[in-house]
Amino acid sequence: MFRGIVWIVCLWWLWMPMAIAGELGDRAAQFPNWQGKPPVRMAKGDLIYPQWMAGTWDVTSTLVEAIAPLAPDIVTPGYEVNRRYLDRSLQFQVRFQPQSPSESGLNSDGESDAPIVADRTFNGESIARAYLGPDSEVSVRVDPDNPNRQITRIPPKRQLVSVVRGRNSERLNPDRFVATEVAYQVFRTRPQIYLNEVETTTVYYRASPTRIESDQMTAIYLSPKDPNYFRANGRPVALYRYRLQLDRSTDNVS
Q1: pLDDT confidence of 22, banded at 50, 70, 90?
Q2: For residues 141 and 161, is the Cβ–Cβ distance under 8 A?
Q3: Residue 15: is its pLDDT beyond 60?
Q4: What does DSSP say about strands 238-248 and 158-173: parallel, antiparallel, or unpaired?
Q5: What is the C-alpha to C-alpha distance for residues 40 and 165, in angstroms, rounded to an integer?
Q6: What is d(CA 199, CA 28) in angstroms, rounded to the nearest whole number?
Q7: What was the pLDDT predicted at 12?
Q8: What are phi and psi of 155, to 5 degrees?
Q9: If phi over 0 gives left and psi between -120 and 50 gives alpha, with beta otherwise, what is residue 3?
Q10: Do residues 112 and 98 make contact, with C-beta atoms less than 8 angstroms apart?
């Protein structure tokens, strides 16, 4: 039931075997020894990705770690459900595109010079169907006035509202990029409402022009309205790590 609290925010992943420099890179290397949230700035506009991430990608995603650091005292409702996906690979597509194609020019390589952003609607629905089934009627709507607010409807009567409140990013070198987002989520399913915060910290590595490898770490934090909020004392109550391989798609996806 609460699986969507995790996977809607988790859009891109995989493992980096080598040491990483930088504040966010250091945090990724310290996983799962996280004692609080990452350093972020207020989210304004959209998250900008490197130009080499532009395009449509065929993704193989595998959940390789699931940890409840405060168990048995505090365990989130979706933790045991998510553990069922350990070591299972899922396939879906994601897409990154110019933010304003009509206003962009071309750089020296003949590529668009417009900022690259995620197609959040396409990606959210693609990932949702990977979990719920290809015939699922799930729908994702991104606020046209605020790319950081996303509403996902899951038939028959479930809804997830996710608002990115903070983010940060680092370009470690031309082939490495680290990004983190912290989102506030409200998951509604009659008669329950579940609130939390989700951190998604991702390290991307361009292995070749047609392949990206990524290591994505997701942390779940309790909402101040949760009765266990003060017991958690700002620490994550669930941690997940995904290994993900993105291969440039040969499909003509519109």
Answers
A1: confident
A2: no
A3: no
A4: unpaired
A5: 9
A6: 12
A7: 32
A8: -60, 150
A9: alpha
A10: yes
